[in-house]
Write a structure and sequence with these properties.
This protein is α+β, with helices and mostly antiparallel strands and 257 residues long. It contains six helices and nine strands; from the N terminus they run H-E-E-E-H-E-H-E-H-E-E-E-H-H-E. The protein has helices at residues 6-21, 93-110, 135-143, 164-171, 214-223, 231-247; strands spanning 43-52, 58-67, 73-82, 120-123, 147-151, 179-183, 189-194, 204-210, 254-255. Strands 1, 2, 3, 4, 5, 6, 7, 8 and 9 form a nine-stranded mixed sheet that branches. A hairpin with a 5-residue loop joins strand 6 (179-183) and strand 7. The longest helix has 18 residues, at 93-110. It is globular, with a radius of gyration of 18 Å. The two termini are 32 Å apart.
Length: 257
């Protein structure tokens, strides 16, 4: 059976995003989220996909679980996957979410005590998205877990651009933990740019995925940063790249934009 035309796929996916968007919870839902030091938070998860350079079909889907606040790796799952859905801007979740969900389900079956039921960091955007439903929202709603989206690059969307004003706001971030809002043309705050470390002046872009408020998501992201990228995502990225290097030594190193 031939694939449906791209226009039909987009309409179908837009409808699915709109339906799932109604289920996103943009508020704190757990006791630890309102604690100044996140008392009660014991595990944080991180997910990522890394690709072999020049191959946008075969990827390593990675899940890690870290202890909190020590940020030591307790569990890792690396799995080669084949992405069948086409890449269409704004619909990345339809390519990646199924494999990240499978990783969480494998953990639930094998070591349920380590399931990061409290929060999962996602390498990508949440509400900071064309239709306010990025990868972190998609994974959060389908898994039922609190999720935080953390992107390394600015998605220029809904009136937020890499303008001179944006660059001056970045320059004004003096220390780790400083942030400024990413405000859409509508006036709604979709996320925040966060200087995550004193050692890195380049920010990350934090947005709500599911079952957490933006302020808590930003505060938690900063608390999980040893370097620029929060440790759960950094470890997922490093370990997925290492998996590809070991299993595909003749190919160029993994790339994840």
């Amino acid at each position: 059976m031939s694939a449906p035309p791209a226009g039909d796929v987009v309409k179908q996916w837009e409808s699915e995003q709109a339906r799932l968007r109604q289920q996103v919870v943009e508020e704190d839902t757990e006791d630890w989220q309102t604690s100044p030091d996140f008392s009660g938070l014991e595990r944080v998860g991180g997910v990522d996909l890394s690709f072999i350079k020049g191959d946008d079909i075969n990827a390593c889907a990675q899940l890690v679980v870290l202890s909190y606040p020590d940020l030591e790796v307790l569990y890792e799952d690396s799995q080669m996957v084949t992405l069948m859905a086409p890449y269409i801007a704004g619909f990345l979740a339809f390519r990646e979410t199924p494999f990240l969900l499978e990783a969480l389900q494998r953990l639930q079956r094998s070591q349920p005590m380590l399931l990061p039921q409290q929060v999962v960091f996602v390498d990508g955007n949440g509400l900071f998205h064309y239709r306010e439903f990025g990868l972190a929202c998609h994974l959060g709603v389908l898994s039922g877990l609190p999720c935080v989206g953390v992107a390394k690059n600015l998605l220029q969307v809904q009136g937020v651009y890499k303008s001179e004003e944006h660059q001056s706001q970045i320059a004004a971030l003096q220390k780790g933990g400083d942030s400024f809002p990413l405000t859409a043309a509508s006036g709604k705050v979709l996320g925040k740019a966060l200087r995550s470390s004193d050692r890195s002046s380049k920010p990350v872009y934090v947005s709500v995925g599911h079952k957490i408020s933006l302020d808590t998501a930003v505060r938690l992201t900063h608390s999980c940063c040893r370097y620029r990228v929060p440790e759960p995502i950094r470890q997922a990225d490093c370990r997925s790249r290492e998996y590809l290097r070991i299993h595909f030594p003749a190919v160029d190193t993994a790339i994840k934009e």
